[in-house]
Amino acid sequence: MGNLVYWMNVSVDLRIERTPGDNGSGEWLRIGESLHREFNARARELAVMVQGRVIYETMEEFWPRARTDDSLPEFLREYGEIWTDAPKVLVSRTRTSAEHNTRIFGRDDAIDQLAQLRAETDGRIGVGGANIATQLLRAGLLDELMLFTHPAILGTGRPLFDDDLPIDLDLLEHETFDEGVMLHRYAIRHEGRA
């Protein structure tokens, strides 16, 4: 069985967007080379990437072209290759097709489909998107949080989860990067599960 890991860049006050639609691309993010190389290494280890429509469309707009763009640094081209080639699941009620090694889970049974994916997958399954992560948390399927916390307090904007849900966590790992960004990886405690 796989582990569903919600992987997100967040501010100190656990916001993922300052303004609607910035899709985590705000100037508050401090993603330099060392941090991006960490992203690359961790993304390469994922068995599958699961992304909501907004995150997926943001990624598909840039990363497939980035892998062959000689004007970009090597570590960005590398991530372009990783993202484009990785097995992906797009969770969307509106999309009916997708490229780049992507399956679509939609309709009203997407959470059931993700539960089945988790049961059939060996390894870590990266989750991107607050909406899908919130639904997985409610269903008791989300196993870990991997938060890259940037040294900024946004005050407003989209939170890490769409609901105020109580969550008990166990710290699994922490690390500091040159940009002042902290990684905190947590296991989510579920009632009845160790």
Describe the structure.
The chain is of the alpha/beta class. The chain has 5 helices and 10 strands; from the N terminus they run ββαβααββαβαββββ. It has helices spanning 33-44, 53-66, 74-85, 110-120, 130-138, and strands spanning 3-11, 15-17, 48-52, 88-91, 102-105, 124-128, 144-150, 158-159, 168-176, 182-189. The strands form 2 sheets. An 8-stranded mixed β-sheet has the order 5-4-3-6-1-7-10-9. It has a two-stranded antiparallel ribbon with strand order 2-8. Strand 9 and strand 10 form a beta hairpin. Helix 1 (33-44) runs parallel beside helix 3 (74-85) and helix 2 (53-66) packs across helix 3 (74-85). It is globular and about 45 Å long.
Helix-strand blueprint:
Layout (H helix, E strand, L loop, with lengths): L2 E9 L3 E3 L15 H12 L3 E5 H14 L7 H12 L2 E4 L10 E4 L4 H11 L3 E5 L1 H9 L5 E7 L7 E2 L8 E9 L5 E8 L5
Parallel strand pairs: 1-6, 1-7, 3-4, 3-6, 4-5
Antiparallel strand pairs: 2-8, 7-10, 9-10
Helix pairs in contact: 1-3, 2-3
